[in-house]
Amino acid sequence: MKSYVHEFKKWGPVSRCMVHIREDGGFTLIGFENTGDGTSVTNASEDLATEIVAKEGLDPQKCRFFEFYPEYDGDVDEIVYTWDSGKATNPQWAHCCKAEDNPFI
Questions:
Q1: In angstroms, rounded to a whole number, what is the distance separating the alpha carbons of residues 82 and 88?
Q2: In total, how many domains does the chain have?
Q3: Which of 18, 21, 41, 66 has its CA 20 to 30 A from that of 73?
Q4: pLDDT tens-place string over residues 35-56
């Protein structure tokens, strides 16, 4: 698994989150871990998905996206986007799993 701190700017100062990337069953799983440093991963969701797909050179149709907040309960939500010309829009969240089954930790 590849993990790194990703800096992004949505509102105000530069924000940071952890990005986790792993392969599973023909899909690239991308996890956005909120760090509490600036804009939340939920509020920057579409921007994060768009930036990471471009940065990593990924096909968004072969990716699955997730977010979690360790500072709360750590449960994982899956996010499905509509993709238009390489830009993620219209995020839809659904509960994926409990913190103890988090595939990114």
A1: 6
A2: 1
A3: 21
A4: 999 999 999 999 999 999 999 9
